[in-house]
Structure formats: structure tokens, C-alpha cells
Amino acid sequence: MKAIRIHDYGDAGALQYEDAPAPEIGADGLLIKVVGAGVNPVDYKIRAGFMKAVRALTFPVILGSDVSGVVERVGAAISRYKPGDAVIARTDGAYAEYAAAKIDTVAPAPKSIPLTHAAGIPIAAATAWTVLFESAPLAPGQTVLIQGGSGGVGTFAIQLAKLAGLRVIATTSTRNVSLVRSLGADEVIDYTREDVARQARDVDLVFDTVGGEAQKRLYGVLKKGGLLISIVGPPDESLARDHGITARFERSNVTGPKLAEIAGLIDAGKLTIQIEKEFPLVEARAAHELVESGRARGKVVLRVSG
Ligand SMILES: NC(=O)c1ccc[n+]([C@@H]2O[C@H](COP(=O)([O-])OP(=O)(O)OC[C@H]3O[C@@H](n4cnc5c(N)ncnc54)[C@H](OP(=O)(O)O)[C@@H]3O)[C@@H](O)[C@H]2O)c1
Fold first, then answer.
1. pTM (2 decimals)?
2. Which atom of ligand 1 is nearest to the CA of 147?
């Protein structure tokens, strides 16, 4: 099969479009004929070697963690899916004509959007869900500030927060203000023109998808006892103590049942996926460069077949 592999860590030029053996599946696995593969920032971080300490690779490696496609074959223990079913999944080796997924990270694909676009769902939407509904569930009427409202995670987070009845403040740059507003944000702060630290206050939860210096500016917008969750890196705990808040890093928890709920919301017309661009698999390098630029609006996906 054709796949995008790396033979060593490197820049986007390390991505090779080449032949690779199709993956094997176990009793609890599904072989998926890939239609779309989502491109996430973690993919370029893995490619570049930034994740070496937590996730050492044995080369060559097929990149990609988000997949949509059609079930080709199922393992002996699987009765819930059959060949021909359209699915989405969180898996390794998504940038390929075939990918293997474990049953616990698979869900039926939404029917109301193109299957290629559905590849943009798993990590981004499930991360937004994990933070808003599991790590820090708020009561309706409480306020969340979403830093990075126009990104893959942020575009889902704004909509999910509104579905939960929250008041949403989102940060973004000038060109994305109208997009972020259209997703339901009650207040949009253009961080290129306004100081976020002065524009927001008494926030219950900060959901940070940007990190670094931009994150540091947000500690003061929380009310005392508030919570900052970053999905980018460990927050500064001493700064948090100084502000009388709690701050922590959170990882996504992508499960089949969660993906099924998300797909259901999309089919019910309550949640949309924003697609910045679709690239053919062979152009994975350009897709990585776009995501690595940090300027993508919503999701970037690779079209593998179909
Ligand atoms: N911990 C986990 O499990 C987990 C899971 C998923 C993602 N992540 C991490 O979370 C981060 C975000 O992921 P993503 O998929 O949403 O990334 P993404 O789609 O690449 O985010 C791009 C967006 O970030 C916005 N942005 C950049 N700098 C900003 C700033 N200073 N203030 C506000 N917005 C800013 C950009 O908007 P403008 O162009 O308007 O600035 C752009 O729309 C990545 O670092 C990713 O690795 C972690």
C-alpha cells in the first residue's frame, strides 16, 4: 500500500510517499480502508522529534493519528462492525491506504458530512470534549475563556461550550474574528489588537490551546479559585498559586463512545467541523507546513481515497 512514512526525525521534507506493508489486526482490531486522515499538531511534533522522550519511534514509521474510512476486515472478537461500515477512529498510522484500529477508539462516522472531512474529528473534538465535559465541567451560565478559538480544538470547544450553556469568550486574530463569532462565542478578543488580560475577568475556566507567553497572560483573568487547563504544556504552578487559581495540563482521551456522541451532534446539526484545507495524501508535506505554521483555521485533512 502507499503511505507517508519517515525514516528519521526531521522537517516536513522527511515525509516520504512510498510503499509500505499493510498493517495486521488482532482479534479486537479493525482494518480500515482509509478515506481521510486528519493532520494534528502532534503529528509534526512527532515527526520533528519533540515527543521523543514520551514516545520513542522505531523507524520507518507511518505518521497520522486520526482516520476516517470504510471497514475492510474485522477481528474475530468484533461483532459491532462489518466490512463496508463507514467509521472514524483514533489510531496510529493514519497516513496510509489502510490503517488498523482498536475497537475502543472506533465510532460510526457521521453521515451528514463528507467522509474525508470526518477524519478531522477524533483528536480535536475529543480533546475539547474531555476538557469541557470531563476535566472541568461547569454549570450553565458560567464563563469559559477559550484561547485559540479558531484552531482545530478551539473551533469544536466554542461550539461544545455553547451546547453546555456556558458563556464563551474566545481569543483569535483579526482575520478569524467573524469565524469565531459565527461558531457561537459571546465575546471575541482579537489578541493582535487588544490585551486579553485587560479585556476579560472573573472567568471560571481558561481553556488554553496556545501555551507559552500567551498562556501566562491568562492567569489574572480567572476568578479566585478558578481553573486553567492547558493542552499544550505544563502550566506555571507558582504563578497559579500567586493568582489563587489551579492550573494543570490535560491530555485528550479519545474513546469510541465519545466519538459516537460527537458524530451524533454533527448529524443532529448541533456541531460543525471547520475544514481549512484538504490535501491529497501525496501532498502531506504541504499539509504539515500549513499546520506547523500555527495559522490553520479549523482542521487540515489528507484525502487518501474516495
Ligand atoms: N494535550 C492533548 O492531548 C492535546 C490534544 C490536541 C491538541 N493539543 C495541542 O493543542 C494545541 C492546539 O491544537 P490545535 O489542533 O487546535 O492547533 P491548530 O489547529 O494548529 O491551531 C491553530 C490556531 O491557533 C491560533 N493561535 C495561534 N496563536 C494564537 C494566540 N496567541 N492566541 C490565540 N490563538 C492563536 C491560530 O489563530 P490565529 O491565526 O488567529 O492566531 C490558529 O487558528 C497544539 O499545540 C496541539 O499539539 C494537545
1. 0.98
2. 33
